[in-house]
């Protein structure tokens, strides 16, 4: 294999990632400025300097360009959860499975702040995101039940998945609102540690 053959796939992947990021950024900025209903795929494509046909090579809809693909994100998280060593407690396994996602989000902090602001201003996007998160939580419950050797309707996997989701969401909102200047990783770790400790009351 030549050097060119070795490097071409990497270059291709980087180009695809840059195009996807450009489309997402353009979509978020346009919707933040003009509103969800006043922005078209054609406008997003033009702002990213690509064709509408190229847009649909990356996203199935305008909404997906704004909030991502919850189904794909879910599969990535589940794969990481399954790969976590069996002896790790369920709550910690979820935290570890989130590690790469958290690092990626930290690297794109401004984009994520803009995304969360756009979602907050557009209830239709929030509804879709909530639905995607609910599906992810159900899948995590099933994975945890299998991991723990208990039935899918057992309370424990459902409770762990629910509190893990709440801990992550609270850390994410603090980070996005700049209520705390620490990295997202630290906020997530702190939230999960508090849950694992039984949520002791803070001292004044």
Please explain how this structure is put together.
This protein is an all-alpha fold. The protein has two domains: 1-62, Orthogonal Bundle (Arc Repressor Mutant, subunit A), CATH 1.10.10; 69-198, Tetracycline Repressor, domain 2, CATH 1.10.357. The protein contains eleven helices and no strands. The protein starts with a helix and ends in an 8-residue tail after the last helix. Residues 1-8 have low confidence and may be disordered. α8 (109-121) packs across α9 (123-148). It comes from Micromonospora echinaurantiaca. Residues 17-77 form the HTH tetR-type domain.
Element-by-element helix/strand order: HHHHHHHHHHH
What proportion of the residues form beta strands (DSSP E)? Answer: under 5%
Could you describe the largest sheet, including whether it forms a barrel?
none
Describe the global form. Answer: globular
CATH topology (level 3) name of the largest domain = Tetracycline Repressor, domain 2
How many whole angstroms does the radius of gyration measure?
19 Å
How many structurally independent domains?
Answer: 2
Q: At the fourth CATH level, what is the homologous superfamily of the largest domain?
A: Tetracycline Repressor, domain 2
Distance between the termini: 64 Å
Number of helices, where a helix is a run of at least 4 consecutive DSSP H or I residues:
11
Name of the level-1 CATH class of the largest domain: Mainly Alpha
Seen as an oligomer or otherwise, the chain set is: single chain
- Specify the helix fraction band: over 70%
- The CATH architecture category of the largest domain equals Orthogonal Bundle
Q: Pick out the low-confidence regions.
A: 1-8
Please, what is the average pLDDT? 91
Protein name: Transcriptional regulator, TetR family
GO molecular function: DNA-binding transcription factor activity; transcription cis-regulatory region binding
Organism: Micromonospora echinaurantiaca
Pfam family, one: TetR_N
